[in-house]
Each structure stands twice: as structure tokens, then as C-alpha cells.
From TrEMBL:
TM segment ranges: 20-45, 66-90, 119-146
Protein name per the record: Uncharacterized protein
Keywords: Membrane, Transmembrane, Transmembrane helix
Lineage, uppermost ranks: Bacteria, Pseudomonadati, Pseudomonadota, Alphaproteobacteria, Caulobacterales
Highest rank taxon of the organism: Bacteria
Annotated source species: Phenylobacterium montanum
Length: 159
């Protein structure tokens, strides 16, 4: 009876591992177009395969995990900024509604919605973080893909 350590890997296993890592970079690259779902698949593959491959490909899987978590943090900051902008505009709307409630319906035509500075700050932050997140995913995935295409490891990524 053979044990798992005695089973030999096929000769082209290194090519398969490299292609799977390239697929991970492709999924990370296209994650911005599909609301991040491909990034979840890429990081699941990277977590599952990172210990079963050679050192070069393992460094790329670690880099893919790093790309995912930085992108996730940026997306979380973007979502919080967007939520703050939304709450700011809701607060402004509630101010208009309370003014109409206390001053009567005849003030509706003279009342305008004043959007405050916090809305513009948070909305700009959300938009800026969205651009940064998209650039992060595309540039880092492209960088890793090119390094992997030339069979170069990613230097010193988080473990």
C-alpha cells in the first residue's frame, strides 16, 4: 500500500501549478469588473495551493493573498466612506423634513436642500478609494503575472 508521500507528481505538475497561479492573477485583475467575486475564488485557490507547490509559485500565491487582503481593506474603507456620505445626505434631508414639519407645508417651495461639506468629503474619499482599489488590483496582478511569466519569484511577501 502506498502512502501519500510516496505518490509521485506528474512531470508537468510544475506547469500546472504555474498556470493555476496565472489564473489567480487573472481572477484578481478582473475582480474589479465583477464586484470582487473572482478575487474570492483567487484567494481560495492561493490559500489551498500555497504549500503544495515549489518556492517560486508559492511566493506568487502568498503575493496573491497579500493583494486580496490589501484590496479588501481598501474596499472596506471605500464602503465606509460611501456609507458616511449616504448618512450625511440623509441627515440633510431630515433637516429639510423637520423644517417643513415645524413651519408648515407652505415653506416647501421656499426650502431647498443644502448639501453639507461632509457629504462632499466622504463622497470624494469613496470615489478616490474606488480608483485606488481598482488600480491596486490591476497593477499588482499585472506585476505578479509578468514576474510569473518569466519564472521569477516575488521577493519577500507576507507569510
Amino acid at each position: 500500500m502506498t502512502t501519500a508521500s510516496e505518490i509521485r507528481r506528474p512531470a508537468n505538475a510544475a506547469d500546472v501549478d504555474r498556470n493555476i497561479a496565472m489564473l489567480g492573477y487573472g481572477l484578481l485583475f478582473f475582480a474589479i469588473f465583477f464586484a470582487g467575486a473572482p478575487a474570492l475564488i483567487a484567494v481560495a485557490i492561493a490559500y489551498a495551493r500555497r504549500r503544495d507547490v515549489n518556492c517560486t509559485v508559492a511566493s506568487h500565491h502568498r503575493f496573491q493573498i497579500y493583494i486580496f487582503w490589501v484590496g479588501f481593506a481598501l474596499t472596506l474603507l471605500m464602503a465606509l466612506s460611501g456609507l458616511a456620505a449616504l448618512l450625511s445626505i440623509i441627515g440633510d434631508l431630515l433637516g429639510v423634513v423637520s423644517q417643513v414639519r415645524w413651519n408648515g407645508w407652505d415653506t416647501v417651495q421656499t426650502t431647498s436642500l443644502h448639501v453639507g461639506r461632509p457629504f462632499f468629503i466622504f463622497a470624494t474619499a469613496a470615489a478616490g478609494l474606488g480608483v485606488v482599489t481598482g488600480l491596486w488590483l490591476m497593477v499588482t496582478a499585472g506585476y505578479g503575472f509578468i514576474r510569473l511569466a518569466y519564472s521569477h519569484a516575488i521577493p519577500q511577501t507576507a507569510r
